[in-house]
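Morning F.,

Quick status update on the modeling queue. The single chain you submitted on Monday has been processed. Sequence for confirmation:
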Amino acid sequence: MYLSDADIDRIIEMAWEDRTSFEAIHFQFGLLEKEVIEIMRTHMKRSSFNMWRKRTNGRTTKHARLRTDDVNRFKCSRQRTISGNKISKR
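Structure tokens below.
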């Protein structure tokens, strides 16, 4: 699968967001968690990658199955709709 630089930037941004689950990234880009981790590993400095992994390990908001039942959306309620894997500008 080919990913443009803009796609990679968006994936990294989504992966850094605490409330964006890996399932949301999979829904938009078709990437599994291990593929997201590999993208983060190859496109970030080692120290930044290590800091990100430390933050995401065990974080309940990064995995839909660990979230409480009252969280039933992929995105922030204030974020505009997503169409064609591109976030609408504010």
